UniProtKB/TrEMBL annotation:
GO terms for cellular component: plasma membrane. CDD domains: ABC_NikE_OppD_transporters (cd03257). Gene3D superfamilies: P-loop containing nucleotide triphosphate hydrolases. InterPro entries: AAA+_ATPase, ABC_Ni/Peptide_Import, ABC_transporter-like_ATP-bd, ABC_transporter-like_CS, P-loop_NTPase. One of its GO terms (molecular function) is ATP binding. PROSITE patterns: ABC_TRANSPORTER_1, ABC_TRANSPORTER_2. SUPFAM superfamilies: P-loop containing nucleoside triphosphate hydrolases. PANTHER family: ATPASE AAA-TYPE CORE DOMAIN-CONTAINING PROTEIN, OLIGOPEPTIDE TRANSPORT ATP-BINDING PROTEIN APPD. Residues 7-251 form the ABC transporter domain. This is Peptide/nickel transport system ATP-binding protein. Keywords: ATP-binding, Cell inner membrane, Cell membrane, Membrane, Nucleotide-binding, Translocase, Transport. Its main location: membrane.
């Protein structure tokens, strides 16, 4: 770990109704970094995301340390956390993330007024600038609509804009592309790559079971299985030399997804999304 870590998770243990689900999980995300938390269904990925975000259900008990921007937050609910320790969030279920009874524009305006101290008019202008910067078409028209009137890809972009508008040091994206078609998945991954992981943008924790998507977006991967850390390294190293059974299955699936082609180029660089460029 380094001194510029935005997120530090140390000896995280999660129990659901008294049963251990995640045990002694440790990893970190540095400022300007994009890291993927990979694991099969039921491995504890989303429970880990909930613990990091302060959104765990009451049936879930969290022990250990979650430190965001130097603030210990493991036992603090999201709404009670200090501003500097709050994280942006992008979820798979965009329907529940957005209020269908309120226009998209109204929902986007609020964080600009709250976290940036802008007037209503200035906040509206900031919203338009943000969405245009995200290459979103027909911005003024979309802002008048409710979330129910938008496509899945549009809703996911709005959720990303909401996360960015809150000025977080960290964005946690939990399976954000799972419910989307292939073309929209590509657009969302491109958007995440453009809006995170630099000196001027939030760090990213990308949670997925898809190593192909991870390779297009992240530099490092933390891999868990049955609630335990089983492998952690750069994606370049993991693809070239997988150690754990589940990791080998992921890499094998990556090979099988492009028969007759190498899964990565000799000069593969996960940070540039160069998977299958050979």
């Amino acid at each position: 770990m380094s001194g510029n870590d935005v997120l530090k998770v140390n000896e995280l243990c999660i129990r659901v109704d008294g049963q251990p689900v995640v045990s002694d999980l440790c990893f970190h995300v540095a400022a300007g970094e994009r890291v993927c938390l990979l694991g099969p269904s039921g491995s504890g990925k989303s429970l880990t995301a909930g613990a990091i975000l302060g959104l765990s259900p009451h049936s879930v008990h969290v022990d250990g340390s979650v430190c965001i921007n130097g603030v210990e937050v493991a036992d603090i609910r999201a709404t009670r956390r200090p501003v500097q320790s709050r994280s942006g969030m992008v979820f798979q279920d965009t329907h529940s993330a957005l209020n269908p009874l309120v226009s998209v524009g109204t929902q986007l305006r609020e964080p600009f007024m709250r976290f940036h101290g802008l007037s209503r008019r200035a906040a509206d202008e900031a919203v338009v600038t943000l969405l245009r910067g995200m290459q979103m078409a027909h911005v003024e028209e979309i802002l008048k609509r409710s979330s129910a009137e938008l496509s899945g890809g549009q809703r996911q972009r709005i959720c990303m804009a909401l996360a960015l508008a809150c000025k977080p040091a960290l964005i946690v994206a939990d399976e954000p592309t799972t419910a989307l078609d292939v073309l929209t998945q590509n657009e969302v991954l491109k958007l995440l790559r453009e809006c995170t992981g630099t000196a001027d943008t939030p760090a990213l924790l990308f949670i997925s079971h898809d190593i192909g998507a991870a390779c297009r977006l992240c530099e490092r991967a933390v891999i868990i299985d049955e609630g335990r850390l089983v492998e952690s390294n750069t994606l370049t190293h993991i693809i070239a030399n997988p150690q754990h059974r589940f990791t080998r299955q992921l890499v094998r699936a990556l090979h099988d997804s492009a028969p007759g082609r190498p899964p990565f180029a000799p000069d593969f660089d996960a940070r540039e999304g160069l998977l299958c460029t050979a």
